[in-house]
Amino acid sequence: MSRLPDVGTSIFTIMSRMANECGAINLSQGFPDFQVDRKLIDLVYHYMKEGYNQYAPMPGVPALRQSIADTLTATYQRPFNPETEITVTAGGTQALFSAIAAFVQPGDEVIVLDPAYDSYSPAIRLNGGIPVHVNLHYPDFSIDWNEVKSNIHARTRMIMINTPHNPSGAVLTPNDLNELGRIAEEHNLIVLSDEVYERIIFDGIRHESVLHYPGLANRSVAVFSFGKTFHATGWKVGYTVAPEALTREIRKTHQFITFAVNTPVQMALAEYMKNPQHYLHLGKFYQQKRDYFLNGLQGSSWQPVPCHGSYFQTLSYASFSGLPDIQMAEELTRKHKVASIPVSVFYRDKTDNKLLRFCFAKNEDTLDKALEILRKF
Ligand SMILES: Cc1ncc(COP(=O)(O)O)c(C=O)c1O
Question: Is the CB of residue 196 below 6 angstroms from any atom belonging to ligand 1?
Answer without folding.
Answer: yes
